[in-house]
TrEMBL record:
Organism: Amycolatopsis melonis
Gene3D superfamilies: Cupredoxins - blue copper proteins
Occurrences of domain Plastocyanin-like (ranges): 58-167, 185-292
PROSITE patterns for this protein: MULTICOPPER_OXIDASE2, TAT
Keyword annotations from UniProtKB, A to Z: Copper, Metal-binding, Oxidoreductase
Name of a matching Pfam family: Cu-oxidase_2
Protein known as: Multicopper oxidase domain-containing protein
UniProt superkingdom: Bacteria
Metal-binding as UniProt keyword: yes
Amino acid sequence: MGVSRRSMLAGTAAGVLAPVVGFTGTAAAAGPVRRITLYAEALPDGLYGYGLEPGKATIPGPLLEIYEGDTLEIELVNTTDQRLSIHPHGVNYDTASDGAPLNASFNNPRETRTYTWRTRARYEASGGFWMPGSAGYWHYHDHAMGTDHGTGGLARGLYGGLIVRRRGDLLPSKQYTVVFNDMMINHRMAPDTPMFEANLGERVEWICIGHGSLPHTFHLHAHRWADTRTGMLNGASDNAQVVDNKNLDPGSSFGFQVIAGEGVGPGAWMYHCHVQTHSDGGMAGLFLVRNADGSLPAGAQDAIDRFKQHGHTGHDANPDARTHA
Ligand SMILES: [Cu+2]
């Protein structure tokens, strides 16, 4: 039932594990050590991003994905003239890899520094109780730019998703990282927000992350998921709550998988913040479910056009611009 690295690579659309250059640990308990190099780079318009190759920085940064038990060594190359770091949620690290100036854990301008993240499987503690493992939909971000809390880095794009999987977790065919950050989605506002695409029936994984200083709620049209670690039920008698809307406040994260268009068919479906002033203000995007053969379903282009023409109060204050043609 173990999932081989080969199948994990095949199952991760982002291919983030591709740059891993070596496995050194062989002890089963410790798991392999995976090594990557991340480049923190300046982007146009005063923004910054993380990337797996020089010149390839993105907002959000690359989706990092490991298994419980793995250790991830990140060599962070700071190509900028700013102090910055990388700070993870959900994994274990010592103070030197905290990514916080409090622990003098950061990259000075132009400095390269290695951060080590460790994970573990859940384990039985005394008394028959179980301690949680590291598996979850987590995230990472700068914790040193601008202030000791990384407020400047978060505001300028230094963040990304981190998945720690449990062996046997179902792997998706597509993955989308969605970051609600102040009034932006992945640092953009409608109608320039990402349009995520899948074909009818594809297994799609969403990784949702909150940042900034505003509370948000993530809503996806026409699809729903179980409010569990994986977004899935454990069996026919699992009564976990099923949701299609979930709080996404600063620092929080969750993930789930849906089968694109299942039970509802293909089409242009919205995802958006359900705080009404936020969706009106531009925190909305499209999940385009194509036909199974990849063609555009009837009506989808009209819906996309309407979305693109739709003014948002945070994007264009002219009320005339909000009138649909
Ligand atoms: Cu919001």
